[in-house]
Amino acid sequence: MHSSTKNIISAVIIWLFTISGIIGILIGYEDWFLPLTCLNLVIYLILIIWNAGFNKNLLLFLLIPFSIGMITEFLGVNYGLIFGNYEYGNNLGAKIYGVPWIIGVNWAILVYCSAGLVIKIHKNIFLTSALAAMLMVLLDVVIERVAPKFDFWQFENNVVPVQNYVGWFFTAFLAHILFQKSVKVFHFKISLHIFIAILVFFTTFSFL
């Protein structure tokens, strides 16, 4: 299948899920839509891999941000390290030592997409890793406003510490350095659609 056709199909799927989710939650069906978050993220991951031609190396290298995300989240949930004291709710599915496995998938998706957006700006890996990490932190600022409402996760006393954002930046920066050293080809359009879709979804509910 031609790459432009893949891009169109992927964009339709991404925005169909995003708009359906927004409308469904707004009209009162959050108990049905929110538990489907795992499915939504898995579909994003499949679309990334599909647009990359089911590249085996990409599959392998996506384990870098997946593993870093899972390890740091484990340290956060169980010991209050890196991000602060918080715990996960029930709408992100099955957990491994308190951390939903889908969070690792989320880290892989966000690292890939943010890298795909900044990689065209410059070839210096430290600059692109820093810019991509900043994008991820900005997205997290929006997500944190909504996460407790959706029973995704919640910080102690319902206060997100500055430590969380600092931890996000340095964790994302490390993940990007390792990931961008390994992956040389990124698909800008699929990265753009997924990143903006996530931003639009959470921005919609952060102001309601």
Question: How would you describe what is shown here?
Answer:
- This protein is mainly alpha-helical and 208 residues long.
- It is built from nine helices and four strands; from the N terminus they run αααααβββααβαα.
- The strands form two sheets. It has a two-stranded antiparallel sheet.
- α5 (63-79) crosses α6, α5 (63-79) runs antiparallel to α8 (162-182) and α7 (125-146) packs parallel to α9 (188-206).
- The chain starts with a helix and ends with a helix.
Structure summarized in a few sentences:
With 208 residues, the chain is mainly alpha-helical. Helices cover 70% and strands 5% of the residues.
List keywords for this structure.
208 residues; mainly alpha; two-stranded antiparallel sheet; two-stranded antiparallel ribbon; 70% helix
